[in-house]
Fold:
Amino acid sequence: MIICSCNVLSDKQLRKAAEEMRQDPNGRVPTPGAVFRHLGCRPRCGSCFPSVISIIHENASDASHSDASTGSGEPRQLALTKAAG
Structure:
């Protein structure tokens, strides 16, 4: 579905761009402006921003939660500290 009519961006394009940005270890936080730049365009009127924000952050809490956990329920830093000590 087209979310940004000014740039003709779909929800799939926005999700993919946000996911690519999250997976890049040197990447930036996927803000609406950063996602637009990642896709090679600029925000225009801004009326799509509420939808863009929802779309690009809908899986972010799941991704950040799984990244911060070792699978054992411990935060990664705690597990690294235990392994080193």
